Amino acid sequence: MKPQDLVFVVWLVFLILARRPKLFVYSGLLSLVLAMPLFYFHIFFTAERLTWYAGAFFLIYIIYENRH
Prior knowledge:
Blueprint: H1 3-18, H2 21-40, H3 44-67
Helix pairs in contact: 1-3, 2-3
């Protein structure tokens, strides 16, 4: 498990416990913004992970909003 995976899991648990769906969207957007310069500098592994994390944040937001 890479350090960015650990940060993602900790942040995800925090967001789930906070119960504020908009934070999932903001976290997803932040992940995409952070991935852009990494793609530019050819740091593909971390940038790709950040895009997957953004997708996970958006998916959880969609699931959360459809349940309430």
